[in-house]
Amino acid sequence: MSTHYGAIAFTDAVVDVQREHGSDGFYGRKRVQGRAAPGTDALTDDEREYLADRDGFYLASVSETGWPYVQFRGGPTGFLRVVDEHTIGWADFRGNLQYITTGNVSGDDRVALIVLDYAQRRRLKIFGHARVVTVTDDPALVKSFADPDYAADVERAVLVTVEAFDWNCQQHITPRYSAAELEPHLAPLRQQLADLRAENARLREGLEGGEPHAR
To answer: Model's pTM, two decimal places?
Structure first.
């Protein structure tokens, strides 16, 4: 848990519930520490490397009516990038044209991300402030987030100034694997199957071409 995470997440109402369950002593120190420390929390090489291996995340924003909105953002591995130690960003691809998150952050720029690694049962939670950058605003920046090998229209880029983050526990994360994650394990099995089929074909040819057995 980064320094300021508790100061953001552990509101008075949250602390009341923690107190009921006996965890306020531990988390209360995190809250006080965050409020006393100036500035924001810097991302480290651990977060940079972790995000570089991800192909999706969940993004939460808040609407003008106060309702939270959560959506999944996906793309090629590494499309969510650490720009610098206080900033992450990604290409915003054309989707269903609802633009709910884009509209939400124009009024309230606070967002939260949950980035999961299902295979290793890890998750990183991030608090930050989002800024939408269009092609008109900064065409070079938007282009820098595009992946020429990924067939999608980049409408804009999103930059998030990171306030705090937390590596959460593994509990209750069901392991799931993408095709790319399974490939190193499936490829040898496919080769073994191909070899067995080839061997069976050779044996069959040998039986069919051999001398008939005496009766």
So the answer is: 0.84
